[in-house]
Specification:
The complex is a heterodimer of chains A (113) and B (112). With 113 residues, chain A is mainly β. Chain A contains no helices and eleven strands. In chain A, a hairpin with a 6-residue loop joins strand 4 and strand 5. Classes of the chains: A mainly beta (113), B mainly beta (112). The interface between A and B is medium-sized, with 25 and 24 residues.
């Protein structure tokens, strides 16, 4: 049974650029959630995807968007990057739409310069 | 509002010392409560959880009891090891919700 894998592990982008982060969910999990963890802070919920549709969203602007594919993998897209978007982005998969039973990936460290 | 408050660190202990990390929550209803651990350079791992009042979660020598009367879920370990050095996050989940709400985390360093 494979866990949650994220790519890339590290990324440096320039302010104003766009970025796509990828996540493969754990086998048997059909739900993917994304969290942003700023330095020294706890993770903040961005959104969740279930059956290829957004199922709940946190307090993030529309330039944060996502996709889920038929194999349950997911992408997080961020447009018009700002310096404050620098953070660790964590993907978590679960076997149901409730937040219990999450398995987290190791994250993508995004630095915006 | 709905939030999780945990004691802030960083905290440095000697090996075999007793550990307590305080966590309190605010939420409507009776949320599930979690402790997650983040080792250096890694993602979050579930350490333990409790889903109803008076439940005790335990794992790897760590324990936490869901106290409804004090809205708390303090993490304890009787004898820490160097390998316990990590950041610890308390989190809560409202019933039927998809969203975990985390505290700010507490960095623990255990010295030999």
């Amino acid at each position: 049974e494979t866990g949650v894998t994220q790519s890339p592990t590290h990324l440096i982008k320039t302010r104003g650029q766009q970025v796509t982060l990828r996540c493969s969910s754990q086998s048997g999990h059909n739900t993917v959630s994304w969290y942003q963890q700023a330095l020294g802070q706890g993770p903040q919920f961005i959104f969740q995807y279930y059956r290829e549709e957004e199922n709940g969203r946190g307090n993030f602007p529309p330039r944060f968007s996502g996709l889920q594919f038929p194999n349950y993998s997911s992408e997080l897209n961020v447009n018009a990057l700002e310096l404050d978007d620098s953070a660790l982005y964590l993907c978590a998969s679960s076997p149901a739409i409730t937040g219990d039973g999450y398995t987290f990936g190791s994250g993508t460290r995004l630095t915006v310069v | 509002g709905n939030s999780v408050t945990q004691m802030e660190g960083p905290v440095t202990l000697s090996e075999e010392a007793f550990l307590t990390i305080n966590c309190t929550y605010t939420a409507t209803g009776y949320p599930s409560l979690f402790w997650y651990v983040q080792y250096p350079g890694e993602g979050l791992q579930l350490l333990l959880k409790a889903t109803k009042a008076d439940d005790k979660g335990s794992n790897k020598g760590f324990e936490a009891t869901y106290r409804k009367e004090t809205t708390s879920f303090h993490l304890e370990k009787g004898s820490v090891q160097v390998s316990d050095s990590a950041v610890y996050f308390c989190a809560r989940l409202r019933g039927g919700s998809e969203k975990l709400v985390f505290g700010k985390g507490m960095k623990l360093t255990v010295n030999p």
